Amino acid sequence: STDLAPDASYFSGPADGDGRCELVLGYTDRVVRAFRWEDLGDGTEHLMGQLVSLKKWMLEGQVDSLSVTPGPLGVPELMVSQPGCAYAILLCTWNKDPGAPPTSEVPSEGTRETPAARDVVLHQTSGRIHNKNVSTHLVGNIKRGHSPESGASGLFALCTLDGTLKLMEQADKLLWSVQVDHQLFALEKLDVTGNGHEEVVACAWDGQTYIIDHNRTVVRFQVDENIRAFCAGLYACKGGHNSPCLVYVTFNQKIYVYWEVQLERMESTNLLKLLEAEPEYRDLLQELGVDPDDLPAARALLHHSLYHPDQALRCAPTGLQGPT
Predict the structure, then answer these.
(1) What distance, in Å, lies between the first and last C-alpha atoms of the chain?
(2) pLDDT in tens, 143-156
(3) Which InterPro entries match (predicted)?
(4) Cβ contacts of 128 within 8 Å, gap of 6 or more
(5) Phi and psi dihedrals of 6, rounded to 5?
(6) Residue pLDDT, tens place only, 93-124
(7) Sheet holding 173-179, edge to edge
(8) Are 162 and 131 in contact (CB under 8 A)?
(9) Is residue 51 very low, low, confident or very high in pLDDT (cuts 50, 70, 90)?
(10) Contact 26/32 with Cβ under 8 angstroms?
């Protein structure tokens, strides 16, 4: 057993690419440890085994979240957030020497650096100096499509308590950055449009929630209470199937579950664009004597049909043809 603080972070799943699941724990003293369950049972009915320590890392800053995302060669990389909108990649070296004991805290001969600190690769996400004390959260393995290869895109996102949101591809390629006026304390990923592209979902203490797609299109809404915990995912609330859900825990001892959170699209649109996607739209305009390529005429006809359907056209818009 191990003692964990209430705000400790964890990750459970394949962390080193061998298909076996590891348990990775981030402690409040800037230490990260990896464990694996070893089965000791011999066909007995009761589960017997123990958690075996695989490795220990020592970080420079507080660890607020852990995640795994594919690296440049498709091999999973274990990532942890670091203050100031930074992150670190933790090297999983236990497969190189399976018989070696867990990483020692004693510095190697000729260096002051312990092995626990040496297997940490720190990355800053921009040249701008961030507040080194501001907490940072990250989420990795963000999918961009339904194909099997979409999960190996190497996309991950970061957010900070001072309102910075970033979407990254691989180690140092910044796709976009957004600055908001709210304190962001939680970060998730969720496909709210059903197209296989997972959006980035961030929540602030005051309930402000941001949903941002890969093209930096932002949808936001306000929860009317202050939030102490937030998560998002596919959960079965009704109908016996999983659906996109947003879960909020408030300071008033309440839990709110918004289920079936689905958007038809993220980007803004208008009626004319929607009609242009319909196959019979151009034929109907031609029957009404309007050139489908004449946008001012099409807009005038739509405006008249929506707002003055009972009035006769006083003057024919450009492109409208009179009776012959």
Answers:
(1) 90
(2) 988 776 655 668 99
(3) KICSTOR_ITFG2
(4) none
(5) -60, -30
(6) 887 655 555 554 555 455 455 566 679 999 98
(7) 136-142, 155-160, 164-169, 173-179
(8) yes
(9) confident
(10) yes
